[in-house]
Specification:
This protein is mostly helical and 215 residues long. It has nine helices and no strands.
């Protein structure tokens, strides 16, 4: 993703891999099946108690990811942003509950991330959003609006890389001026850029009649 309204900000992937065109078996798999895999992995992360099982599931998902043709660099790119967080979580859980439990928790988090990335790397965004609308369809009877829900997801997927890119650009600029240790030099420009991006996104939605709930 390049830039945003009125600014040229680097786009950054964030946790989930972007769609890569292909004709692999996973690309051709039904969307409901891919959703089911993500759901099962998410539920299993709470139920699996053996880190060896978690490691086996993660290895399987990584192999499936590579079979899509996305490549190992893209796979590493999906987990690299989590490295520091996972290190902190792992060390804390090791201290509190021991190494096997810490390893299981870290592996289960990676299972969820790779499973979700397997979905996004093999499914065009529009098809993914259409699937969300279909899955949320039964909730219309309870007053839910599946289209707005899908739109919210689309905005989130667009906004997170934009904000990550804005932070990286501000950090690089601050480092060039010797201000990388100054929180104000980092936080304030990102805050202003984010607010501007949110306002312009809101104005674009309002111009299309999507900013207000219908009476």
């Amino acid at each position: 993703m390049r830039g945003g309204p009125g600014n040229a900000v680097r786009g950054h992937g964030f946790l989930l891999a972007n769609y890569v065109p292909g004709a692999s078996l996973i690309h051709r798999a039904p969307l409901w099946l891919k959703f089911l895999v993500v759901l099962v992995c998410g539920v299993a992360s709470f139920l699996v108690v053996d880190w060896l099982v978690s490691a086996a599931v993660l290895a399987t998902l990584c192999c499936l990811f590579l079979l899509t043709g996305a490549g190992p660099r893209r796979l590493l790119g999906t987990v690299r942003p989590l490295a520091l967080v996972l290190l902190v979580i792992g060390l804390f859980q090791w201290w509190q509950l021991g190494a096997p439990t810490a390893l299981r928790i870290v592996l289960n988090i990676l299972v969820c991330v790779v499973a979700a990335s397997l979905l996004t790397v093999t499914t065009p965004l529009q098809r993914l959003l259409d699937g969300v609308v279909s899955l949320a369809g039964p909730f219309r009877r309870f007053g839910a609006d599946p289209e707005r829900f899908a739109l919210t997801i689309a905005i989130m997927l667009r906004s997170i890389p934009y904000i990550a890119g804005a932070f990286a650009d501000v950090r690089d600029s601050a480092r060039a001026r010797g201000l990388e240790r100054n929180p104000r030099a980092l936080v304030l420009p990102v805050f202003i850029t984010t607010v501007a991006f949110a306002r312009q996104t809101g104005e674009a939605l309002a111009a299309r009649g999507l900013g207000e709930a219908e009476d």
